[in-house]
Amino acid sequence: MKARSTSLRVRLPVFVFVTEVVIVALYAIFVTYDDHADAKFQTNQTNPLDNAMYRDYPFFTDIQVMIFLGFGCLLAFFRLYGFGGLVFNFLTATFAIQWAILVQGYFQFNYDGKIHLGVINLINAEFACAVVLISFGAVLGKTSPLQLLVMALLEVPVFAVTEWAVLKYLKINDAGGSILIHLFACYFGLGVTFVLYRPQLNEGHAKENTSYQSDILSVMGTLFLWVFWPSFNSALTLKGDDQHRAILHTFIGLSASTLTAFALSAMLNKKGKLTMADVQNVTLAGGVTVGATVDMMISPAAAYALGMMGCMACMLGYKYLSPFLAQRLRIQDQCGIHNLHGLTGLISCAAGICAILMASEEVYGPSLYEIFSHRAPVEGDPKLLELQMLVPNLQPGLGRTAHEQALFQVAAIFSTIGVSALGGVLTGFVLKLSCLAPPSDDFCFDDELFFDVPLDYDSPTSNSITTEDSAA
Protein backbone atom coordinates (compact mmCIF):
# COMPACT_ATOMS: atom_id res chain seq x y z
CA MET A 1 0.00 0.00 0.00
CA LYS A 2 2.76 2.47 0.94
CA ALA A 3 4.66 1.78 -2.26
CA ARG A 4 1.54 2.41 -4.38
CA SER A 5 0.63 5.60 -2.50
CA THR A 6 4.04 7.11 -3.23
CA SER A 7 4.40 5.87 -6.81
CA LEU A 8 5.73 8.52 -9.19
CA ARG A 9 4.67 6.70 -12.35
CA VAL A 10 1.78 9.06 -13.11
CA ARG A 11 2.23 12.01 -10.79
CA LEU A 12 5.78 13.03 -11.67
CA PRO A 13 5.35 12.80 -15.50
CA VAL A 14 2.06 14.73 -15.32
CA PHE A 15 3.60 17.53 -13.27
CA VAL A 16 6.74 17.72 -15.41
CA PHE A 17 5.03 17.64 -18.80
CA VAL A 18 2.34 20.14 -17.80
CA THR A 19 4.90 22.60 -16.42
CA GLU A 20 7.12 22.11 -19.46
CA VAL A 21 4.25 22.94 -21.81
CA VAL A 22 3.45 26.05 -19.77
CA ILE A 23 7.10 27.14 -19.63
CA VAL A 24 7.75 26.65 -23.35
CA ALA A 25 4.58 28.60 -24.15
CA LEU A 26 5.61 31.46 -21.87
CA TYR A 27 9.13 31.41 -23.32
CA ALA A 28 7.67 31.62 -26.81
CA ILE A 29 5.54 34.63 -25.87
CA PHE A 30 7.80 36.59 -23.55
CA VAL A 31 11.45 35.56 -23.86
CA THR A 32 13.83 36.87 -26.49
CA TYR A 33 17.58 37.59 -26.72
CA ASP A 34 19.27 40.58 -25.18
CA ASP A 35 21.44 42.90 -27.28
CA HIS A 36 24.58 40.82 -26.71
CA ALA A 37 22.92 37.61 -27.96
CA ASP A 38 20.80 38.98 -30.79
CA ALA A 39 22.35 38.68 -34.26
CA LYS A 40 20.56 41.72 -35.65
CA PHE A 41 22.53 44.01 -33.33
CA GLN A 42 25.87 42.70 -34.59
CA THR A 43 27.65 44.56 -37.39
CA ASN A 44 31.08 44.51 -38.96
CA GLN A 45 32.01 47.19 -36.42
CA THR A 46 31.15 44.97 -33.47
CA ASN A 47 34.10 43.64 -31.52
CA PRO A 48 33.20 40.11 -30.38
CA LEU A 49 35.45 40.50 -27.34
CA ASP A 50 33.20 43.31 -26.08
CA ASN A 51 30.33 40.85 -25.73
CA ALA A 52 29.03 40.59 -22.15
CA MET A 53 29.47 36.84 -22.36
CA TYR A 54 33.22 37.18 -21.77
CA ARG A 55 32.58 39.27 -18.67
CA ASP A 56 29.74 37.25 -17.14
CA TYR A 57 30.18 33.65 -18.30
CA PRO A 58 33.05 32.78 -15.88
CA PHE A 59 30.79 33.73 -12.95
CA PHE A 60 27.93 31.75 -14.47
CA THR A 61 30.00 28.58 -14.75
CA ASP A 62 31.41 28.97 -11.24
CA ILE A 63 27.94 29.27 -9.75
CA GLN A 64 26.79 26.32 -11.86
CA VAL A 65 29.48 24.22 -10.20
CA MET A 66 28.28 25.37 -6.79
CA ILE A 67 24.65 24.56 -7.51
CA PHE A 68 24.93 21.21 -9.23
CA LEU A 69 28.13 19.77 -7.75
CA GLY A 70 28.56 21.72 -4.52
CA PHE A 71 25.03 21.54 -3.19
CA GLY A 72 24.44 18.12 -4.73
CA CYS A 73 27.40 16.40 -3.12
CA LEU A 74 26.96 18.27 0.17
CA LEU A 75 23.39 16.99 0.50
CA ALA A 76 24.43 13.38 -0.12
CA PHE A 77 25.71 12.81 3.42
CA PHE A 78 23.02 10.31 4.53
CA ARG A 79 24.13 6.71 4.14
CA LEU A 80 20.97 5.53 2.36
CA TYR A 81 19.99 8.81 0.74
CA GLY A 82 22.87 9.56 -1.60
CA PHE A 83 20.73 9.29 -4.71
CA GLY A 84 18.12 11.57 -3.17
CA GLY A 85 20.60 14.21 -2.11
CA LEU A 86 22.35 14.37 -5.48
CA VAL A 87 19.52 13.65 -7.91
CA PHE A 88 16.71 15.59 -6.24
CA ASN A 89 19.10 18.54 -6.04
CA PHE A 90 19.75 18.13 -9.80
CA LEU A 91 16.03 17.90 -10.59
CA THR A 92 14.98 20.80 -8.36
CA ALA A 93 17.80 23.09 -9.48
CA THR A 94 17.10 22.57 -13.16
CA PHE A 95 13.42 23.33 -12.73
CA ALA A 96 14.03 26.31 -10.43
CA ILE A 97 16.38 28.02 -12.90
CA GLN A 98 13.95 27.56 -15.80
CA TRP A 99 11.10 28.94 -13.72
CA ALA A 100 13.14 31.81 -12.23
CA ILE A 101 14.07 33.11 -15.70
CA LEU A 102 10.37 33.78 -16.26
CA VAL A 103 9.35 34.92 -12.81
CA GLN A 104 12.27 37.26 -12.20
CA GLY A 105 12.15 38.44 -15.79
CA TYR A 106 8.55 39.54 -15.27
CA PHE A 107 9.79 42.36 -13.05
CA GLN A 108 12.35 43.39 -15.65
CA PHE A 109 10.15 43.69 -18.75
CA ASN A 110 11.57 46.02 -21.36
CA TYR A 111 9.58 48.58 -23.31
CA ASP A 112 8.44 45.83 -25.69
CA GLY A 113 7.03 43.62 -22.94
CA LYS A 114 9.72 40.99 -23.43
CA ILE A 115 12.28 39.33 -21.20
CA HIS A 116 15.62 40.01 -22.89
CA LEU A 117 17.67 36.96 -21.99
CA GLY A 118 21.42 37.02 -21.51
CA VAL A 119 24.00 35.39 -19.28
CA ILE A 120 23.33 37.92 -16.52
CA ASN A 121 19.70 36.75 -16.39
CA LEU A 122 20.92 33.20 -15.94
CA ILE A 123 23.12 34.32 -13.02
CA ASN A 124 20.12 35.99 -11.38
CA ALA A 125 18.11 32.81 -11.92
CA GLU A 126 20.92 30.79 -10.33
CA PHE A 127 20.68 32.94 -7.22
CA ALA A 128 16.95 32.22 -7.04
CA CYS A 129 17.78 28.54 -7.48
CA ALA A 130 20.31 28.75 -4.63
CA VAL A 131 17.53 30.07 -2.41
CA VAL A 132 15.41 27.01 -3.16
CA LEU A 133 18.29 24.59 -2.57
CA ILE A 134 19.15 26.16 0.79
CA SER A 135 15.51 25.78 1.85
CA PHE A 136 15.60 22.19 0.56
CA GLY A 137 18.24 21.45 3.20
CA ALA A 138 15.69 21.92 5.99
CA VAL A 139 13.49 19.10 4.66
CA LEU A 140 16.19 16.83 3.23
CA GLY A 141 15.19 13.17 3.27
CA LYS A 142 11.61 13.90 4.36
CA THR A 143 10.06 14.96 1.06
CA SER A 144 9.21 13.46 -2.30
CA PRO A 145 10.54 14.89 -5.59
CA LEU A 146 7.02 16.17 -6.31
CA GLN A 147 7.00 18.08 -3.04
CA LEU A 148 10.37 19.62 -3.88
CA LEU A 149 9.23 20.70 -7.34
CA VAL A 150 6.09 22.26 -5.91
CA MET A 151 8.19 23.99 -3.25
CA ALA A 152 10.37 25.48 -6.01
CA LEU A 153 7.26 26.43 -7.99
CA LEU A 154 5.94 28.43 -5.02
CA GLU A 155 9.17 29.70 -3.47
CA VAL A 156 10.61 31.31 -6.61
CA PRO A 157 7.67 33.76 -7.05
CA VAL A 158 7.68 34.66 -3.34
CA PHE A 159 11.42 35.29 -3.55
CA ALA A 160 11.12 37.30 -6.77
CA VAL A 161 8.40 39.54 -5.34
CA THR A 162 10.36 40.06 -2.13
CA GLU A 163 13.55 40.82 -4.03
CA TRP A 164 11.74 43.26 -6.32
CA ALA A 165 9.96 45.06 -3.47
CA VAL A 166 13.05 45.34 -1.26
CA LEU A 167 15.30 46.59 -4.05
CA LYS A 168 12.71 48.92 -5.59
CA TYR A 169 11.24 50.49 -2.46
CA LEU A 170 13.76 49.99 0.34
CA LYS A 171 16.78 50.26 -1.96
CA ILE A 172 19.35 48.44 0.14
CA ASN A 173 22.96 47.35 -0.23
CA ASP A 174 23.19 43.54 -0.29
CA ALA A 175 26.00 42.56 -2.65
CA GLY A 176 26.54 39.07 -1.21
CA GLY A 177 22.85 38.29 -0.70
CA SER A 178 22.91 38.12 3.10
CA ILE A 179 19.35 39.42 3.30
CA LEU A 180 17.75 38.42 0.03
CA ILE A 181 19.40 35.01 -0.37
CA HIS A 182 20.58 33.61 2.94
CA LEU A 183 17.99 35.02 5.35
CA PHE A 184 15.10 34.54 2.92
CA ALA A 185 16.07 30.95 2.11
CA CYS A 186 16.65 30.09 5.76
CA TYR A 187 13.37 31.31 7.17
CA PHE A 188 11.35 30.07 4.20
CA GLY A 189 12.83 26.61 4.76
CA LEU A 190 12.17 26.78 8.51
CA GLY A 191 8.56 27.75 7.80
CA VAL A 192 8.14 24.70 5.55
CA THR A 193 9.71 22.27 8.00
CA PHE A 194 7.64 23.72 10.86
CA VAL A 195 4.44 22.70 9.06
CA LEU A 196 5.89 19.33 7.98
CA TYR A 197 6.89 18.50 11.55
CA ARG A 198 7.26 14.76 12.27
CA PRO A 199 7.23 14.05 16.04
CA GLN A 200 8.75 10.58 15.68
CA LEU A 201 11.89 11.98 14.07
CA ASN A 202 12.78 13.84 17.25
CA GLU A 203 13.53 10.47 18.81
CA GLY A 204 16.01 9.62 16.06
CA HIS A 205 15.64 7.52 12.94
CA ALA A 206 17.36 4.26 12.10
CA LYS A 207 18.37 5.59 8.66
CA GLU A 208 19.36 9.08 9.77
CA ASN A 209 23.05 8.27 9.70
CA THR A 210 26.13 8.56 7.55
CA SER A 211 28.81 6.25 6.18
CA TYR A 212 32.49 6.64 5.41
CA GLN A 213 31.76 7.02 1.70
CA SER A 214 28.81 9.42 2.09
CA ASP A 215 30.80 11.72 4.36
CA ILE A 216 33.67 11.86 1.85
CA LEU A 217 31.22 12.72 -0.95
CA SER A 218 29.67 15.44 1.20
CA VAL A 219 33.06 16.99 1.93
CA MET A 220 33.71 17.07 -1.81
CA GLY A 221 30.57 19.19 -2.10
CA THR A 222 31.92 21.48 0.62
CA LEU A 223 35.17 21.89 -1.28
CA PHE A 224 33.34 22.82 -4.49
CA LEU A 225 31.32 25.43 -2.61
CA TRP A 226 34.41 26.71 -0.80
CA VAL A 227 36.49 27.16 -3.93
CA PHE A 228 33.80 28.93 -5.97
CA TRP A 229 32.17 31.01 -3.22
CA PRO A 230 34.16 34.16 -4.19
CA SER A 231 32.37 34.10 -7.54
CA PHE A 232 29.00 33.77 -5.80
CA ASN A 233 29.67 36.82 -3.62
CA SER A 234 31.21 38.98 -6.33
CA ALA A 235 29.16 38.15 -9.44
CA LEU A 236 26.78 41.11 -9.17
CA THR A 237 29.08 43.68 -7.58
CA LEU A 238 30.36 46.68 -9.53
CA LYS A 239 33.18 45.72 -11.87
CA GLY A 240 36.66 46.79 -10.89
CA ASP A 241 37.86 47.50 -7.36
CA ASP A 242 34.50 46.56 -5.76
CA GLN A 243 34.59 43.10 -7.33
CA HIS A 244 38.27 42.80 -6.44
CA ARG A 245 37.52 43.49 -2.75
CA ALA A 246 34.61 41.06 -2.82
CA ILE A 247 36.88 38.23 -3.94
CA LEU A 248 39.53 39.08 -1.36
CA HIS A 249 37.07 39.40 1.52
CA THR A 250 35.31 36.16 0.66
CA PHE A 251 38.51 34.16 0.53
CA ILE A 252 39.77 35.66 3.79
CA GLY A 253 36.44 35.03 5.54
CA LEU A 254 36.30 31.43 4.34
CA SER A 255 39.88 30.82 5.39
CA ALA A 256 39.22 32.17 8.87
CA SER A 257 36.06 30.13 9.35
CA THR A 258 37.81 26.97 8.16
CA LEU A 259 40.67 27.19 10.64
CA THR A 260 38.28 28.12 13.45
CA ALA A 261 35.97 25.23 12.58
CA PHE A 262 38.74 22.67 12.94
CA ALA A 263 39.77 24.10 16.30
CA LEU A 264 36.24 24.22 17.68
CA SER A 265 35.36 20.79 16.33
CA ALA A 266 38.18 19.18 18.31
CA MET A 267 37.51 21.34 21.37
CA LEU A 268 33.77 20.58 21.58
CA ASN A 269 34.12 16.85 20.89
CA LYS A 270 34.26 14.89 24.15
CA LYS A 271 36.96 12.65 22.69
CA GLY A 272 38.91 15.53 21.20
CA LYS A 273 38.33 14.30 17.65
CA LEU A 274 37.20 16.06 14.49
CA THR A 275 33.55 15.73 13.44
CA MET A 276 32.81 15.43 9.76
CA ALA A 277 29.56 17.38 10.02
CA ASP A 278 31.60 20.37 11.23
CA VAL A 279 33.99 20.08 8.30
CA GLN A 280 31.09 19.78 5.85
CA ASN A 281 29.15 22.79 7.06
CA VAL A 282 30.82 25.09 9.58
CA THR A 283 33.87 25.71 7.39
CA LEU A 284 31.60 27.58 4.95
CA ALA A 285 30.27 30.08 7.50
CA GLY A 286 32.75 32.79 6.58
CA GLY A 287 31.43 32.99 3.03
CA VAL A 288 28.02 33.99 4.37
CA THR A 289 29.23 36.27 7.16
CA VAL A 290 31.16 38.61 4.86
CA GLY A 291 28.31 38.78 2.34
CA ALA A 292 26.71 42.09 3.33
CA THR A 293 30.06 43.91 3.48
CA VAL A 294 31.84 42.00 0.76
CA ASP A 295 32.33 44.99 -1.57
CA MET A 296 32.89 47.61 1.15
CA MET A 297 36.10 49.04 2.59
CA ILE A 298 35.93 47.03 5.80
CA SER A 299 39.63 45.97 5.78
CA PRO A 300 41.03 42.44 5.47
CA ALA A 301 41.26 42.18 9.27
CA ALA A 302 37.53 42.79 9.62
CA ALA A 303 36.80 40.13 7.00
CA TYR A 304 38.93 37.70 8.98
CA ALA A 305 37.14 38.57 12.22
CA LEU A 306 33.76 38.12 10.54
CA GLY A 307 34.82 34.69 9.34
CA MET A 308 35.74 33.68 12.88
CA MET A 309 32.53 35.10 14.37
CA GLY A 310 30.36 33.37 11.81
CA CYS A 311 32.10 30.07 12.42
CA MET A 312 31.60 30.30 16.19
CA ALA A 313 27.91 31.15 15.83
CA CYS A 314 27.39 28.36 13.30
CA MET A 315 29.20 25.76 15.42
CA LEU A 316 27.33 26.63 18.60
CA GLY A 317 24.09 26.62 16.66
CA TYR A 318 24.68 23.06 15.48
CA LYS A 319 25.64 21.88 18.95
CA TYR A 320 22.95 23.57 21.02
CA LEU A 321 20.37 25.55 19.05
CA SER A 322 19.26 22.94 16.49
CA PRO A 323 18.26 20.37 19.16
CA PHE A 324 16.35 23.10 21.04
CA LEU A 325 14.45 24.14 17.90
CA ALA A 326 13.48 20.54 17.17
CA GLN A 327 12.40 19.66 20.71
CA ARG A 328 10.72 22.90 21.77
CA LEU A 329 9.66 24.78 18.63
CA ARG A 330 8.75 21.94 16.20
CA ILE A 331 11.46 23.02 13.74
CA GLN A 332 13.33 19.98 12.44
CA ASP A 333 16.12 21.67 10.50
CA GLN A 334 17.67 18.64 8.85
CA CYS A 335 20.83 20.30 7.48
CA GLY A 336 21.08 23.08 10.03
CA ILE A 337 20.36 25.86 7.54
CA HIS A 338 19.50 28.17 10.44
CA ASN A 339 23.08 27.87 11.64
CA LEU A 340 24.90 28.20 8.31
CA HIS A 341 22.59 30.76 6.69
CA GLY A 342 20.38 32.27 9.40
CA LEU A 343 22.72 33.04 12.28
CA THR A 344 25.61 33.94 10.00
CA GLY A 345 23.28 35.97 7.80
CA LEU A 346 22.18 38.03 10.81
CA ILE A 347 25.80 38.65 11.82
CA SER A 348 26.56 39.67 8.25
CA CYS A 349 23.63 42.10 8.20
CA ALA A 350 24.73 43.66 11.49
CA ALA A 351 28.24 44.09 10.09
CA GLY A 352 26.80 45.64 6.93
CA ILE A 353 24.84 48.20 8.96
CA CYS A 354 27.97 49.11 10.91
CA ALA A 355 29.96 49.48 7.68
CA ILE A 356 27.27 51.73 6.20
CA LEU A 357 27.25 53.95 9.28
CA MET A 358 31.05 54.33 9.16
CA ALA A 359 31.35 54.87 5.39
CA SER A 360 32.70 58.29 4.48
CA GLU A 361 34.29 60.16 1.60
CA GLU A 362 37.58 60.17 3.48
CA VAL A 363 37.73 56.37 3.14
CA TYR A 364 35.98 55.80 -0.21
CA GLY A 365 36.56 59.03 -2.07
CA PRO A 366 33.94 59.90 -4.73
CA SER A 367 33.30 56.18 -5.28
CA LEU A 368 31.29 56.27 -2.02
CA TYR A 369 28.30 57.32 -4.12
CA GLU A 370 28.75 54.45 -6.55
CA ILE A 371 28.90 51.73 -3.89
CA PHE A 372 26.17 53.37 -1.80
CA SER A 373 24.30 54.70 -4.81
CA HIS A 374 21.25 55.82 -2.83
CA ARG A 375 23.41 58.23 -0.84
CA ALA A 376 24.33 60.09 -4.01
CA PRO A 377 22.91 63.63 -4.28
CA VAL A 378 19.53 64.05 -5.94
CA GLU A 379 19.04 65.41 -9.44
CA GLY A 380 19.77 69.14 -9.56
CA ASP A 381 21.99 69.20 -6.48
CA PRO A 382 25.17 71.19 -7.25
CA LYS A 383 27.22 68.57 -5.46
CA LEU A 384 26.05 65.97 -7.97
CA LEU A 385 27.58 67.99 -10.79
CA GLU A 386 30.86 68.23 -8.88
CA LEU A 387 30.91 64.49 -8.31
CA GLN A 388 30.08 63.74 -11.93
CA MET A 389 33.19 65.65 -12.95
CA LEU A 390 35.16 63.04 -10.96
CA VAL A 391 32.91 60.04 -11.66
CA PRO A 392 31.39 60.62 -15.13
CA ASN A 393 28.90 57.73 -14.97
CA LEU A 394 27.56 58.60 -11.52
CA GLN A 395 23.76 58.55 -11.45
CA PRO A 396 21.56 60.77 -9.26
CA GLY A 397 20.65 59.15 -5.96
CA LEU A 398 18.17 59.77 -3.16
CA GLY A 399 20.42 61.92 -1.01
CA ARG A 400 20.15 59.54 1.93
CA THR A 401 22.35 59.94 4.98
CA ALA A 402 24.26 56.99 6.41
CA HIS A 403 21.74 56.69 9.25
CA GLU A 404 18.81 56.69 6.86
CA GLN A 405 20.40 53.97 4.74
CA ALA A 406 21.06 51.89 7.87
CA LEU A 407 17.40 52.14 8.89
CA PHE A 408 16.31 50.90 5.47
CA GLN A 409 18.68 47.95 5.89
CA VAL A 410 17.01 47.09 9.21
CA ALA A 411 13.57 47.36 7.62
CA ALA A 412 14.68 45.01 4.83
CA ILE A 413 15.92 42.42 7.34
CA PHE A 414 12.66 42.22 9.28
CA SER A 415 10.39 42.40 6.23
CA THR A 416 12.36 39.69 4.43
CA ILE A 417 12.28 37.37 7.44
CA GLY A 418 8.56 37.95 7.94
CA VAL A 419 7.57 37.42 4.31
CA SER A 420 9.81 34.38 3.85
CA ALA A 421 8.60 32.68 7.04
CA LEU A 422 4.96 33.28 6.12
CA GLY A 423 5.60 32.05 2.58
CA GLY A 424 7.29 28.94 3.95
CA VAL A 425 4.41 28.15 6.30
CA LEU A 426 1.82 28.50 3.53
CA THR A 427 3.97 26.39 1.20
CA GLY A 428 4.27 23.76 3.91
CA PHE A 429 0.49 23.38 4.04
CA VAL A 430 0.44 22.82 0.27
CA LEU A 431 3.20 20.22 0.54
CA LYS A 432 1.15 18.21 3.04
CA LEU A 433 -1.28 17.22 0.29
CA SER A 434 -1.27 13.43 -0.08
CA CYS A 435 -1.26 13.69 -3.89
CA LEU A 436 2.35 14.93 -3.68
CA ALA A 437 3.46 11.50 -2.41
CA PRO A 438 5.10 12.45 0.90
CA PRO A 439 7.13 9.56 2.34
CA SER A 440 6.05 7.92 5.56
CA ASP A 441 8.26 8.22 8.64
CA ASP A 442 9.61 4.72 8.01
CA PHE A 443 10.84 5.64 4.53
CA CYS A 444 12.46 8.95 5.36
CA PHE A 445 16.18 9.16 4.49
CA ASP A 446 15.84 6.12 2.22
CA ASP A 447 16.44 6.01 -1.54
CA GLU A 448 14.54 2.75 -1.96
CA LEU A 449 11.16 4.48 -1.93
CA PHE A 450 11.75 6.58 -5.07
CA PHE A 451 14.67 4.91 -6.87
CA ASP A 452 15.61 1.58 -8.40
CA VAL A 453 18.55 0.96 -6.09
CA PRO A 454 21.41 -1.53 -6.60
CA LEU A 455 21.49 -4.62 -4.43
CA ASP A 456 24.39 -3.32 -2.37
CA TYR A 457 22.98 0.16 -1.71
CA ASP A 458 22.66 -0.59 2.02
CA SER A 459 25.89 -2.57 2.35
CA PRO A 460 27.69 -0.04 4.61
CA THR A 461 25.14 -0.70 7.38
CA SER A 462 27.58 -2.33 9.76
CA ASN A 463 30.09 0.51 9.42
CA SER A 464 27.64 3.39 9.70
CA ILE A 465 27.40 5.82 12.58
CA THR A 466 24.44 7.93 13.54
CA THR A 467 24.44 11.69 13.30
CA GLU A 468 24.19 11.85 17.08
CA ASP A 469 27.23 9.61 17.52
CA SER A 470 29.28 11.69 15.10
CA ALA A 471 28.48 14.86 17.04
CA ALA A 472 29.40 13.34 20.41
From TrEMBL:
This is Rh50-like protein. The chain crosses the membrane at residues 12-33, 63-81, 87-107, 119-140, 146-167, 179-197, 217-236, 248-268, 301-321, 342-360, 406-431. Its main location: membrane. Gene3D superfamilies: Ammonium transporter AmtB like domains (1.10.3430.10). Keywords: Ammonia transport, Cell membrane, Glycoprotein, Membrane, Transmembrane, Transmembrane helix, Transport. Functions as an ammonia transporter. May play a role in the elimination of ammonia in the gill. One of its GO terms (cellular component) is plasma membrane. Belongs to the ammonium transporter (TC 2.A.49) family. Rh subfamily. It comes from the Eukaryota. Residues 26-433 form the Ammonium transporter AmtB-like domain. The keyword Transmembrane applies. Coiled coil: none annotated. It is a multi-pass membrane protein. GO terms for biological process: ammonium homeostasis. InterPro entries: Ammonium/urea_transptr, NH4_transpt_AmtB-like_dom, RhesusRHD. It is found in: Cell membrane. One of its GO terms (molecular function) is ammonium channel activity. SUPFAM superfamilies: Ammonium transporter. The lineage of its organism: Eukaryota, Metazoa, Chordata, Craniata, Vertebrata.
